[in-house]
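Hey, weird one. I pasted the DNA repair protein RecO sequence into the form twice and got a warning about non-standard characters only the second time. First submission, copied straight from the form history:
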Amino acid sequence: MGAIKINAIVISNVDYDDYAKIITVFSKEYGKLSFFAPGVNKSTSKNKYSIQTLSLSEFEIFKSKSEDKISKLKTGILKKEYFQISKNYRNYIYVSIMIKILEQIEQISNKKYKIFKMFCYVLENIEKNIFSFQSYLFFITYLIQESIQPLRLTKCVRCKKSNSRIVRYEHVEKGLICKKCLWPGEKIHLESFVKLLQDIGKKNIYSLLDQKYNSLDLVVLHNIIIDYYERELGFYLGPIFFLRNEVTLNVPINKIDLYK
C-alpha cells in the first residue's frame, strides 16, 4: 500500500531508540493514531520539527492495515505550532489534561473530523488566552458526549420526556430530572446550572463559547466532568492535581448545598 497523507496534531512523542520515536497524533482522517518515526532524533532530520508535541502537521505515512502493527512515517511538514501555550502555566495544565484524555480515550464516535476541528479551535483560543478555562472545559465535556457513555442531557432520565420542566441534575443517574420526577429529599438546582447542562445537550462548542455562564456553575460542571473521567472511566489525569489546589476551581463551603 502506498503512503497516505493525514492532517494531525501531535499529542505525544516517545523515544524508541537513539534515533527513532513513536508518535501519537489526533488526526482529522482517522482520529487517534500512532506511527513509527525513524531517524527523527537525528540533527539532520527534515521531519523533526513536525513531530513535536502540540504541532499541527501534515504527515505522509504508510498506514498499517492491522491493529497489531504500527504505521510508519515517511515525511512530516509542520503547519502550525502551539508552543506558546506552555508560557502560561494554567493554560499549559488545561492542555495537558486534554492530551491525557485523548491518549486514553478509545470508545469515541466516528465524528473524527468534528473532534479534530474542535481541538484546533480550542488550542487557538487557549494559545491566545481567550476563554481558556471555558474552552478546555467544554472540549473535555464534548469528548464525553461523543463517547459511548455520554451524560444524558436532552430529556428527563426518569420519564424520558423532553418537554418536561427540567429542575435537577442527578449525579448517580448522570442525567437531568424534571420536576414531576423528583424523589422525596431531592432538591431543585439553580436555574442557571440546569440551563448550562441543557445547552451542552443541544448546542455545539462554538455556540457555548458565545454564551456567558455563571462562573460557579462552570466550576461545578468541571468537578462533575473530572469525576466522570476518573471514577467512571478510570482515566489517569495527572495534571489535575495542580488545579485541585486552586481556590478559584473549588466550590465554597457555603455554596455546596446549592448543587447537592
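That's the output from the first submission. The warning seems to come from a hidden character in my clipboard, not from the data itself. DSSP finds seven helices and eight strands in the chain.
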